[in-house]
Amino acid sequence: MSRLYKLKETxxxxxxxxxxxxxxxxxxxxxFSAAFGAHWTKGYSQMIQGGISxxxxxxxxxxxxxxxxxxxxxxxxxxxxxxEYGDILSSxxxxxxxxxxxxxxxxxxxxxxxxxxIAQGYDYPVRVSIVREDFxxxxxxxxxxxxGVYDALRIEIGEAEGQNWWCVxxxxxxxxxxxxxxxxxESHERLENTLTEEEFLVVSSLGQDEITPKVKFKVVExxxxxx
Length: 227
What we know:
Layout: H1 2-53, E1 57-62, H2 68-90, H3 95-119, E2 126-135, E3 138-140, E4 143-145, E5 148-157, E6 164-170, H4 185-194, H5 197-203, H6 211-225
Parallel strand pairs: 1-5
Antiparallel strand pairs: 1-6, 2-5, 3-4
Helix pairs in contact: 1-6, 2-3
């Protein structure tokens, strides 16, 4: 007991003499822990978004305006392009092959889209480009893509100031039914086979019961939105 009593006295004496050093040590430890946590979560966010971006090609169609007629025209152009070129693009087996094929048929896609605009009674010019651009967070039924930079086929109709329509050209998630309002089992399988297990876990987090995937997506989303 005497030894315990002496140890207690020693600790109390050290605390009285050096308590500010102990407090500083605690503060420094907490600060370093927070900094390490921030560094890790930022790195994780960049890894996930960069990994997804490196494997997919997106499709971006911008309407002339938000008027009902312009928005309907946008969908007509979308349907025509997917009808004409969906089979060709669906045979591509990689992102690189998809981008190469798009580069080859880009002018033809522009001609097809322009023909559809004229056929619908409008004279809006059409511009088609393959771009690498910032996309905001996008929800596609129970699939979610974090904000970030992605490669995409971009079709601009007229002033291109209206709401846009998007989907994923590679892996092939556009072709079965261009008017999907939901993701199908087939599209899930294609995406799962293209992404890593961790990337797909984040993208499909809305459809999962576990809390961990949802937290991971929030980490990715928070860091990407801070850019």
